[in-house]
Amino acid sequence: MVEKKPLKPISDYLVRMILKSPFHMFIGNKTALIEFTSRQSGRVACQPIRYLRKDNVIQALCEKGKDWWKNINDGAPVKLVLDGKKYQGWAEVIEETDKIKKEWQIFVRSLAGGSLTGKELDNGEGVDENLPETNQFGSSVLVTIQLS
Asked: Which of 62, 72, 109, 130 maximizes the CB count within 10 A of its CB?
C-alpha cells in the first residue's frame, strides 16, 4: 500500500504559484513547471519537475507513482516555465528501466563534456550532486522534452 502524503498537494500548489511569480528564483534554478493537456478532461494541467538541461533538451526523472506523466506517454506538446519564462516543446516518456539508465547516463555525461559520471558530476553547471543511484531507475520514468 502506498503511503499518502497529505501535505504534498499543498506543497505542489505552492511550488506552482511561486514558479509562475517573480519569486521563482527562491525555488531553485533546476525546478520547472510542465504544462500539458489532460487526456481525461482535456483541461490544461501542470506539475512541478526537477530537471537537467543541455541546450534545447530537458530531462527529468519522475516518480512512476504519480500519474501525470501518462498524459504525455505517447509524446505530446507541452509548455514549460523555466526561470520565469515560458517555453514550448515536445515531451516523450521512457518507462523501460534499462533504457532510462542508458539515456540518463548519456545525457548527464554530455553535461560534463563526457568525462564524468554519477556523483562526480557537480561541475558548477547546475548538475545535481545527488543524482539517482541505479536502483532508483526502476521506480522512475524519464521525461525528455525538446524545446522549440
From this structure: 72
